[in-house]
């Protein structure tokens, strides 16, 4: 990547755009909501069960001017979801400022492993054991979504729940490949610990992106 382009990416004026698409939010509090997804490339958190590993290498995704991203987004929906990869790898300030100028609602799905930048109407924090969230994102998260891959993740979920603010909604979501095994355990856990809610990847059941 040319240094001049890299400088613009570092400033958040251009971003490595993997894909953008209009669909139905399938997870968490806003499930069922029509939303425009912006998937930003680049992530070094390294979840072995990640279903978008092709997003990890930012160099595989073209640096795209954020004004073009905003122009596309505002055409489709009032709700914008920025995901990755790990979007907080980059400065989200310029992109979210432009999106807010268009009057859009902006959500982020993040591991919280990096500095919280940007203007957000909704922060979905999905922490990972490999790189824990920053104190600021724990304080500001609207929704905690812990992926349950094995039984130790119940312990991890409780440890994460202790870190978030009192208004944060708590979700447990089965990792897709382990759903048949883990859903009964999650249901049982939530019934015994009703501060938690169950989240499912409903878009996969609906066979949509």
UniProtKB/TrEMBL annotation:
<dbReference type="InterPro" id="IPR058240">
    <property type="entry name" value="rSAM_sf"/>
</dbReference>
<protein>
    <recommendedName>
        <fullName>7-carboxy-7-deazaguanine synthase</fullName>
        <ecNumber>4.3.99.3</ecNumber>
    </recommendedName>
</protein>
<feature type="binding site">
    <location>
        <position position="50"/>
    </location>
    <ligand>
        <name>[4Fe-4S] cluster</name>
    </ligand>
</feature>
<dbReference type="InterPro" id="IPR013785">
    <property type="entry name" value="Aldolase_TIM"/>
</dbReference>
<feature type="binding site">
    <location>
        <position position="47"/>
    </location>
    <ligand>
        <name>[4Fe-4S] cluster</name>
    </ligand>
</feature>
<feature type="binding site">
    <location>
        <position position="43"/>
    </location>
    <ligand>
        <name>[4Fe-4S] cluster</name>
    </ligand>
</feature>
<dbReference type="InterPro" id="IPR024924">
    <property type="entry name" value="7-CO-7-deazaguanine_synth-like"/>
</dbReference>
<dbReference type="InterPro" id="IPR007197">
    <property type="entry name" value="rSAM"/>
</dbReference>
<keyword id="KW-0949">S-adenosyl-L-methionine</keyword>
<comment type="function">
    <text>Catalyzes the complex heterocyclic radical-mediated conversion of 6-carboxy-5,6,7,8-tetrahydropterin (CPH4) to 7-carboxy-7-deazaguanine (CDG), a step common to the biosynthetic pathways of all 7-deazapurine-containing compounds.</text>
</comment>
<feature type="domain" description="Radical SAM core">
    <location>
        <begin position="30"/>
        <end position="209"/>
    </location>
</feature>
<comment type="pathway">
    <text>Purine metabolism; 7-cyano-7-deazaguanine biosynthesis.</text>
</comment>
<keyword id="KW-0671">Queuosine biosynthesis</keyword>
<comment type="subunit">
    <text>Homodimer.</text>
</comment>
<keyword id="KW-0004">4Fe-4S</keyword>
<feature type="binding site">
    <location>
        <position position="209"/>
    </location>
    <ligand>
        <name>substrate</name>
    </ligand>
</feature>
<keyword id="KW-0479">Metal-binding</keyword>
<keyword id="KW-0460">Magnesium</keyword>
<feature type="binding site">
    <location>
        <position position="39"/>
    </location>
    <ligand>
        <name>substrate</name>
    </ligand>
</feature>
<keyword id="KW-0411">Iron-sulfur</keyword>
<keyword id="KW-0456">Lyase</keyword>
<feature type="binding site">
    <location>
        <position position="85"/>
    </location>
    <ligand>
        <name>S-adenosyl-L-methionine</name>
    </ligand>
</feature>
<feature type="binding site">
    <location>
        <position position="83"/>
    </location>
    <ligand>
        <name>substrate</name>
    </ligand>
</feature>
<dbReference type="Pfam" id="PF04055">
    <property type="entry name" value="Radical_SAM"/>
</dbReference>
<keyword id="KW-0408">Iron</keyword>
<feature type="binding site">
    <location>
        <begin position="126"/>
        <end position="128"/>
    </location>
    <ligand>
        <name>S-adenosyl-L-methionine</name>
    </ligand>
</feature>
<feature type="binding site">
    <location>
        <begin position="49"/>
        <end position="51"/>
    </location>
    <ligand>
        <name>S-adenosyl-L-methionine</name>
    </ligand>
</feature>
<feature type="binding site">
    <location>
        <begin position="24"/>
        <end position="26"/>
    </location>
    <ligand>
        <name>substrate</name>
    </ligand>
</feature>
<comment type="similarity">
    <text>Belongs to the radical SAM superfamily. 7-carboxy-7-deazaguanine synthase family.</text>
</comment>
């Amino acid at each position: 990547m040319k240094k001049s382009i890299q400088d613009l990416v570092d400033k958040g004026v251009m971003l490595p755009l993997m894909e953008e698409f209009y669909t139905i939010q399938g997870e968490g509090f806003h499930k069922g909501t029509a939303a425009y997804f912006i998937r930003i490339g680049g992530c070094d958190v390294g979840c072995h069960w990640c279903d978008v590993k092709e997003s990890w290498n930012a160099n595989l995704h073209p640096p795209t001017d954020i004004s073009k991203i905003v122009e596309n987004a505002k055409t489709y929906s009032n709700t914008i979801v920025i995901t990755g990869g790990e979007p907080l790898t980059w400065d989200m300030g310029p992109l979210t400022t432009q999106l807010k100028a268009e009057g859009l609602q902006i959500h982020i799905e993040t591991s919280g492993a990096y500095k919280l930048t940007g203007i957000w109407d909704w922060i979905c924090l999905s922490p990972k054991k490999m790189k824990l969230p920053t104190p600021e994102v724990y304080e500001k998260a609207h929704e905690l979504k812990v992926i349950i891959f094995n039984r130790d993740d119940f312990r991890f979920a409780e440890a994460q729940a202790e870190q978030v603010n009192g208004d944060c909604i708590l979700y447990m979501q089965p990792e897709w490949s382990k759903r048949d095994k883990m859903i009964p355990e999650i249901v049982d856990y939530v019934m015994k610990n009703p501060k938690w809610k169950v989240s499912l990847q409903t878009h996969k059941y609906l066979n949509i992106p």
